[in-house]
Amino acid sequence: MQEEIERLARWIAEAKKVVVFTGAGVSTESGIPDFRSPGGLWSRYDPNDFYFQRFLNSEEARERYWQMHSELYEMLKTARPNPAHYACVELYRMGKLSSVITQNIDNLHQEAGLPADKVIELHGNALRVKCLDCGRLYPREEIQRRIDAGEKAPRCDGCGGLLKPATISFGQAMPQEEMRRAEEEARGADLFIVVGSSLVVHPAALMPLFAKEAGARLVIINLTPTPYDDQADLLIGGKAGEVLSEVIERTKEVLRTN
Ligand code: NAD
Ligand code: ZN
Hints:
Bound molecules: nicotinamide-adenine-dinucleotide, zinc ion
Mean pLDDT: 95
Number of domains: 2
């Protein structure tokens, strides 16, 4: 793996505009399970309950949704960024990072110290709650207190509309402005690094293809194969935190000796 790390460090040193694209795998080292780990949160719930249409149509589905999200929130509250998140901050401080496009909803990139405007969240953020009717935003903590006090599927104080964590469910429209910015970033990158994503969730998984199409070098750091491995200029099959920390150390050395 040392050879791959060396190569990526050189490419970062040469790059003008690095875009990092992250998925659940960037946060597993923070203790948040990804979709596919056996015994993880998601394996104990029926994914069909989490389609947006079901949430809109059934009080029971809403109650189960909030139950699952309350469990998730317990985990998110205590999770701390890991070396992979801090490596992105280092890239930013080196002046190399244009943005992080993330599928994660855990806020850990920001918590690690990346400015919020450098993080493009394609699937929303679980630390906010949104009214589906009037759009009013609530801090998650406030709504969680209502749930802990016995509310099962909370509604908006202002308009009585349905409240939902400000995350994108299956079947729910993607956030337009974030999608636009992400595509622009992907097409403008000269080095596009995928970290910890199975690249099976669409349309998010199109971003590496946009980057590649526009001429970027594509690097995939993931523990398991992805459908786009054959498009990558470099594949690193290691743990995000370990790989990226080493890459950053090597990049600093390369930049010092250049
Ligand atoms: P995914 O679960 O489909 O894939 C994660 C990938 O990361 C897997 O291929 C796995 O092999 C790899 N991986 C796991 N740990 C790793 C590590 N330490 N280093 C390198 N690779 C590692 O995740 P996805 O592609 O992000 O898609 C899942 C969807 O679920 C996303 O839409 C996301 O919004 C949501 N989700 C988010 C979180 C979070 O916010 N932390 C957690 C679970 C799921
Ligand atoms: Zn409302």
